[in-house]
Amino acid sequence: MAQAVLEAQKRSSKKQGGENAKAKKQVAKSTTKQRRKKQTQEKKAAAVSKISKGKYVDLKDTRFYVDSHGNKLKGLNKINGKLQYFDQISGAQVKGEFAKVDGTTYYFDQISGNAVPYVLTEDNKISAYQSDGKPAKWGFFTAQNGDIYYFNEDGSYAAGLQTIDGIVYFFDEAGHLAKDTLETADGSTYYADAATGQVVKLIPQRIPSRVSSAKAIASFAAHNVAHSANKKSFEEIDGYLTADSWYRPKEILVDGQLWEKSGKADFRPLLMSWWPTKSIQADYINYMIEQGIVESKRKFTAKDSPRVLNNAVQNVQIALEKNLTITASANWLRQLIHSFIKTEAIWNKSSESVSSDGLQSLQGGFLTYKNSRLTPKANSDYRILGYVPSYIKNNENKGSEFLLANDIDNSNPVVQAEELNWLHYLLNFGSITGNDAAANFDGIRVDAVDNVDADLLHIAAEYFKNAYHVDQSDQAANAHLSILEDWGSDDPQYIYDQGANQLTMDDYFVGQMNYSLENKPGTNDKMLRFLQWYLIDRANNSTENTAIPNYTFVRAHDSNSQDQIQAAVQAATGGEYGVFNWEQLQQGLELYYKDQTATNKQYNRHNMPSTYAMLLTNKDTIPRVYYGDMYLEGGQYMSAKTIYYDTIANLLRTRIKYVAGGQTMSVDHNDILTSIRFGKGALTADDHGTDETRTEGIGVIVSNNTDLKLSDDEQVVLQMGAAHRNQAYRAAVLTTESGIVNYTSDEGAPIVYTDDEGNLIFKNRDVVIDGLSEANTSVQGYANSQVTGYLAVWVPVGAATNQDARTSAAATPSTDGKIFHSNAALDSNVLFEGFSNFISYPEIHDDNANVVIAKNVGLFKSLGFTSFELAPQYRSSGDKTFLDSTIDNGYAFTDRYDLGFGKPTKYGTVADLRNAIKTLHAVGIQAIADWVPDQIYNLPTKELVTVDRTDERGNLLADSKIHNRLYVANTIGGGKYQKLYGGAFLNLLETEYPDLFTAIQSSNGKAIDPSVRITSWSAKYFNGTNILGRGSDYVLRSPHSNYFYVGENSAVAQKFLPSTLVAEHDQSNE
Known about the structure:
The chain is of the alpha+beta class. The protein has five domains: about 50-150, Cholin Binding (left handed beta-beta-3-solenoid); about 180-350 and about 1030-1070, no CATH class; about 360-505 and about 935-1025, TIM Barrel (Alpha-Beta Barrel), CATH 3.20.20.80; about 505-550 and about 550-560 and about 605-815, TIM Barrel (Alpha-Beta Barrel), CATH 3.20.20.470; about 845-930, Transcription Regulator spoIIAA (2-Layer Sandwich), CATH 3.30.750. The protein has 25 helices and 49 strands. Strands 28, 31, 32, 33, 35, 36, 37, 41 and 42 form a nine-stranded antiparallel sheet that branches. The protein has an eight-stranded parallel sheet with strand order 26-25-45-44-43-30-29-27. It has a six-stranded antiparallel sheet with strand order 46-24-49-23-47-48, with no helix packed on it. Helix 2 (about 215-220) packs across helix 4 (about 305-325). Mean pLDDT is about 95; it is low at about 1-30, about 35-45 and about 1065-1070. It catalyses: [(1->6)-alpha-D-glucosyl](n) + sucrose = [(1->6)-alpha-D-glucosyl](n+1) + D-fructose. Keywords: Glycosyltransferase, Hydrolase, Repeat, Transferase. InterPro entries: Cell_wall/Cho-bd_repeat (IPR018337), GH (IPR017853), Glyco_hydro70cat (IPR003318), Glyco_hydro_b (IPR013780). This is dextransucrase.
């Protein structure tokens, strides 16, 4: 027994010792971990260079820091005690962006560039961080954009009414401290102070059931007459009063109790004293009851007597005056009155004949500006609508002039000169903004050709001839590609007849891919249609320099992509079509991505690999590859690939090596399409070519029939031609049950052989070579996420790894008067439309699209891209009036010269853009700018115009109330860089290229006019605008249709005010 006790004690002691040792090891391990963490932090801190000597260098709103040795700083640096970050490539200071350094995220102020505290949304949670990237403490917190939060100790943020240190504040649902706004909570209305955010509860006034006498009401109203009939006593637009106008009354009711003479700053809403109808007066009272300004159980209507209504509005005025005293601010009253205005049909879009017909569906409809004696500043001698290529060609059916926002009058000679000035700016962007010609754009995409004056195409063409001598040779022309977004069926021939100055769109082929391949199985058109409806006849295409030069694409940022994604967003969120925020967009994109992997797709197009196999092997066109077919449309730029990426990349690299020579295309009795390219040196099937021909050429087989089954005696033949007799071919792309198999080299690829006539023959069973079956070589229908039908691509075996079937453009002088020529050299180009509408804002600086582009130029080069079409780089207006200004894709801009100065756009800063262009040039890739001469959004200053409600062609809508009406449009302004660069280069251009300023334009019969610099836009330079939701009667008038006017008396307009604002001896009742 004693021995047992001793052994137990020994075991216990041993166990305890082991546990103690284990504990000591854990402590040591923890200590080591902490020490390493501390060392890592110290190492990071030490890695931040502390700069004390050097200087900042500013270059056109881009800032650099040059150290004492003359080197540009890059990366994270501490300058004069402040953390700052400089781009790792260009050295440009990062402002208004996040950057991640060694795992720590920083935000750099958009003004100073210093690291500042910030909030970040991660996993749908908002967290606060200090300027050094460490988590912030609880309490009030000012974010990088100025928003103020209050974070609780658990990391959550305050929302709603909150009492903090005895002071009441209001935070919205997103945690933002309310300032200078009206807020409703707990059944009461509050005003949040503009400076502190401290809320004050508004005190309601009860409308007494007993109505004042008529004499008392008249006495009260007498105090509200205008101080004078001069403009100084009114807020007006070009002398006219609007529903939002305020005025200076003769007296004000201080604290709702005592009448005193008004001061110069004592303005009140016009709608506090006058209303156009009894109905609106009653609505005003009811609205103030709803908002808690006054209290009453009564529902007021137009049937109430004037005395009852006037008594009620005077009680509203008493309540408003009391609360003006309490809050010491009138800003909340402006918000309140404007909110009421938007509830009235005559002051909102309800009276603007909103339509979804044609292009009106984009923004609800159009207003065409008219010349009028009432609005002389907005008058124009031009506004020649619909002068588009199709109209010029046929002299009938004017084109659709209006598209979006403020529609620029491109028939005006002054505007035409400004468009030339802007074009010059874009194409010399690097030289002008950075003294770096290597960062200049090379060519342009012209947006919305069928909605702009065709004179612009001529002006652009003449500029390219003068600046780049593109008319001298193919070599010069092909180095400066210009492509057109021209959907009109008459456009290609018009463009060609004008000299093939730009590349027209082959909408025939684009459309037929849509009709014959991209729909759900069983709903496609026949493949035979490719041989029946075309711009380029490819049945036997052996010509050079004959076809109309063009480009082709499968999808684009706004074609077969944005509508489908918006439909997915609507399905995912249950919201209104086209109305969403970024979070809802992400929900829709997730549904869209999932749908892409389905066989029967709801939102995605079908047969993308098949369309690209045809696109990238066709003769007499430049193919354009769409970003969204290779990379997911949303998210960070190039961060995730589509299911089609591998196939498209394979086809692009295959194109470099094999695609050349003449082409044949045929469709057999099973509606199976075959397309053959013979290789360089062979334009027809009978040409024997050269040794180079032998290892080039390509064959494509395409069907859209998922139920395709060949009988035993049927075959599909690729007639590869005489140059390819008795030759081994390998698969580049084959269809299988599960999808696509890609082969990027001869190794491991299925092999077939041509016969004595150069034919590759396929049947309903796999090809057998030397007794062995070549897998997946039978022709049959499939249904999977990649192919619904059949696709196969075959190329010769034995090509050298570095084989290049492309042709360089010749320097031989052009003599036929054409700029572009459809030949092997032009065909050797590949465009990349390098963006999607739905790319997210970058999370950090290095995620900027233009930064990512610069890092991937080697990839683009390897894929054979010769021209990179960049996203429209313009800073978005962000007004959310249309898709473009909701997702900030660059097409909805106010200042078209601002390509990312200072604060970055969605794609980066001007420095990022210049660097992207330079790196593209370094590998021989052209940079294409998006020239958008049709519209300007959201100009900051209002102007009075005379309008008709029309369709996109300027035709009056007969059932609309808006005819010859005064309207307030946003037409004046253009931004800092419009002011700086607008018209700035016209003198230079007139000196260097004088013929541009003497050529007579077709639409107006005049030369462009450089005498006026458009540094600020105004209505005289526009054709009209989209409806703005201000309503048919926003500009106020009497029941007799006379507009109220406070400007100077003239033969055109006399002072005229509402009678309630005028003393009896001054003016009679309106």
